[in-house]
Amino acid sequence: MIPAYDLNKIKFATDEATFQRAVGLYENGKVTEVEEWGGNYTAAVLGTRPYRVSVSARNYKHGSCTCYLGEKDTLCKHIVALSLYAVMDGRPLSDRDKELDFQVECSKEQRAIKEEELTVVKKSVTEALRYIKPYSGPSRTWFANQDSLREGCNRLSVIVSDLPVDKPAAEVLVKLLLRLDKKLRVGGVDDSNGIVGGFMSEVVRVLEESAQVDPKCIEAFKALIGIGITCFGWEEPLIRILDEKLEK
């Protein structure tokens, strides 16, 4: 049985503390007696005592555990540890697999991005944006929606931080900002927690740094001319950089 989720889904959608504790359980051989049955994985996960754990092969957040959190229908480290076993099939995790740094950074790697690489990046951006969804449901499902926004931004953070510094890459980031802005203004996305807005501010900072590394990136900012009112004026620092270049 192959689970419908993968390691990245678990990483991007689980809070850092729970993920790291689950990794510890998995790497220390605490996930035992794993079986597949009826579309679920079951196991005994060894903690302060053996806990009986099950998790769906369709959604790793759909599971049960006899620990304190599990009995309150809260995603616990034991469920996540079993999910890790399901996707890794007992294989060791690499350092990259365990990496949880979702800070948005400018790579400062100045090189021309290859056309095939750019195609993959654009596809990955579109896939990540699907997690930044509108919300108009009841309050009881609001937190799940915010988790989805966080997952989308986590996925985008990795993409942005891996980009080289050049004009086509800068154009991708400007288009990403415009797409996110549209989602916030007219797309029904509830960003009450500032998850998306905070991410957008970090992308603007990456573009500012990119302009310092390679001034050709500033040409990508021309797409911001005359765009009208944005959700919180995020484009203003980039417009100033463009104006300064045009004045020279």
The proportion of residues in beta strands is 5-15%
Rg, rounded, reads 21 Å
Overall geometric form: elongated
Q: How are strands sequenced across the largest beta sheet?
A: 1-2-3-4
Which H/E pattern describes the elements? HHEEEEHHHHHHH
Count of separate DSSP helical elements: 9
What's this entry about, in short?
By secondary structure, the protein is α+β, with helices and mostly antiparallel strands.
Textual characterization of the structure:
By secondary structure, the protein is α+β, with helices and mostly antiparallel strands. It has two domains: 92 residues, no CATH class; 133 residues, no CATH class. It is 49% helix and 10% strand. The protein contains nine helices and four strands. Strands 1-2-3-4 form a four-stranded antiparallel β-sheet, covered by helices on one side. The longest helix is centred in the middle third of the chain and has 21 residues. It is elongated, with a radius of gyration of 21 Å. The N and C termini lie far apart (63 Å).
